[in-house]
Write a structure and sequence with these properties.
alpha/beta; five-stranded mixed β-sheet; 10 helices; 13 strands; disordered N terminus
């Protein structure tokens, strides 16, 4: 009886200890819908798996179907780690306290730009030629490269949405380029790298499209962490991403040439463009 009693007490003690210890909850990594969901999931799965292995806890990859769903996840604090566009980051930093820790280097460049694209046979050779036309923007009004920066270009030209041109929206930037190719609009807000994406090249002949105008460059796409994440863990995540050597399989899969360290100060140009584009 004494032995049974000791075993029972021991089991209760172990249970109590286990319940008092902090459990390793899964980390959630959200990726914004720059590309179709199936493509995005394939590209970033190796990164999530690498993080899971090196952190010793599961990193769940969450890929949403559109910008609206993605942004709902950001606002609710669903994502511990999040890959987002530059304007998303500014809002997430100001409203939810997300802190940038890294950014993409793509094709060897640490900057990117917004762009407006037209068909080469459209007869449109300047921004002024878009007056009275329909422009299909990719991803919604929070899309930095395919709506906000292109809107700034149009505004500098003196063109006002709803007055001088009609704005429509595609699910994402690739969708805007693909729809433009099929003549669903006169121009598209795409960002300056969209025509180089494999997901776009596979579906249309990009040689029939051209970039009509391009914005000032600004810092590449950021990665940020929730404000309440352990700083040591954020540092470890940043270091494992930034230390990946050129040509690493994780980088190749994500279609980036490197990840580099980034801070909030790197986003001042983004704030400048967004303030101009979105002000009345």
């Amino acid at each position: 009886m004494k032995l049974i009693k000791r075993i029972t007490i021991g089991a209760v003690t172990l249970t109590a200890l286990a319940s008092s210890m902090p459990s390793l909850a899964d980390l959630t990594m959200g990726i914004f819908p720059r590309r179709p969901a199936a493509v995005t999931n394939k590209l970033f799965k190796p990164l999530a798996e690498m993080m899971s292995q090196q952190l010793g806890e599961k990193v769940d990859l969450v890929v949403t179907k559109d910008f609206k769903s993605f942004w709902a996840g950001v606002e609710s604090g669903k994502f511990d780690i999040v890959h987002l566009n530059q304007y998303h980051y500014i809002l997430a930093h100001d409203k939810q306290g997300y802190q940038v820790f890294a950014a993409n280097e793509e094709n060897g460049s640490r900057t990117i730009a917004g762009a407006i694209t037209v068909r080469k046979d459209s007869g449109i050779d300047s921004l002024a030629g878009l007056k009275g036309k329909t422009i299909l923007f990719g991803g919604g009004r929070k899309a930095m490269g395919s709506y906000i920066a292109p809107t700034a270009l149009l505004k500098k030209e003196g063109l006002k949405e709803g007055v001088d041109y009609t704005a429509q929206f595609a699910k994402n930037p690739p969708g805007a380029a693909i729809s433009l190719f099929h003549k669903a609009a006169d121009a598209a807000g795409t960002g300056n790298v969209i025509l180089g994406l494999g997901a776009v090249k596979k579906k249309i002949d990009v040689s029939q499209l051209k970039i009509l105008a391009e914005s000032e460059p600004y810092v590449q796409l950021p990665w940020a962490a929730r404000k309440d994440m352990d700083p040591a863990k954020v540092k470890k995540i940043a270091e494992m991403m930034i230390s990946l050597p050129k040509g690493d399989a994780v980088l190749e899969s994500a279609k980036v040439t490197a990840f580099f360290s980034a801070t909030d100060a790197d986003f001042e140009k983004v704030r400048e463009i967004a303030d101009f584009a979105l002000s009345n």
